[in-house]
Request: fold
Amino acid sequence: MGWEIGSIEDVIESQLCLGCGICASVENERYSMEDSVTFGRRPYVKEGAPKETGEAFLLCPGHHLEHTFDLTSAKYQTDLLEGWGPILGVWEGYATDKKVRFQGSSGGVATALSHWAINKGGFSGILHTAASESIPFLNETIYSTKSKDLGKAAGSRYAPSSPCEKLNLITQFPDSSVLIGKPCDIASASKLSKIDPQIEAKLGLTIGFFCAGTPSTKGNLDLLEKVGIKHTDKLISVRYRGNGWPGRWVASYLEKDGIEKKKALSYSESWGFLQKHRQWRCYICPDHTGEFADIAVGDPWYRDIEPGEPGKSLIIARTQRGLDAILAATATGYVTLEKRDNSLLPRSQPNLLKTRGTLWARLIVLKIFGAAVPDYKGFNLFKYWLSELSFKEKLQSFYGTIKRVYKKKLRKRISIKD
Reply:
């Protein structure tokens, strides 16, 4: 069968949903974000809800993503523009505060920028993701107005999150706000800011972190069971990274005798397990480095990490206001920039151009076999399929997707109700 994607329901049932939550923000009388254990955070239609207006569908990054920046602009780093999106500068750096740096997944720069935004930048607060206080293996969207509230959200959360579901919150505060999220979250918020003057006025800065995909709740539950934690009602916390670089996955829980115990895995062990449970749309995502954000942050994986080495972040200024924020946070002592070098980005993510090239073949296969195909513009997929993949890899890019079409039932409509 062929797919015609024309509604949010089509996006969900074709497995193109990313769970960003933008639909629940702009059509909040119709949708609420809830967790589908198998698929991730998804918009559920409320009982007695009004009909879909089409606004949420227009903003949804799951089925449509387009670069609209000026490819001929001299201000961007032209050697990186086509493959990596708009870039005004690339640095390696870290949070100047040692505690913030230690808690962060890499160098704690996203948290340091948040501290600067609240204390020196004139922002009302930060819209971001934190662990649920009642169910530690789930996430919740929170709005922080004080520095003391930022520490508990430091570190990566490799579980479903929907920060855009509460994007309307930023219109309730006197000054502008910062949004921290996955590349897809930032992309949908960017779309909304272009058509909503209130959001445009109040969304003062966006920080996107590098993302290789979102594992499902089922993946997280399976990992807990794998290490011997079967009763999640006894969980105290689940931490994925941080408290050292790159940090460890640590689950704290209570034994029957009431004594707190912990199970831990290395970063590579935990992510190696969880990445197999990523939602389908993440497998066909063209943006892993926050190309629509003002600032993007990730790990500088261009070299081996020495044991006990303090964390460092890869920092990318993608817009002028992102560049201004980085320099202001550095000038006021919140961020330390160690070195500026544009080559740090491709060296830290050496496989991403190949991934972009593979995506071209994947989309062709999906179309041929009657699965849903998102509409991407401005990502130069074919160019990198030609230049970055060997002949064998080109064949594998087709064959591997054919197998996934059947394994993941991509030609059929799915139900998100577990």
Remarks:
- The chain has a mean pLDDT of 93.
- The longest strand covers residues 89-95.
- The first helix runs from residue 8 to 13.
- The chain has 16 helices and 15 strands.
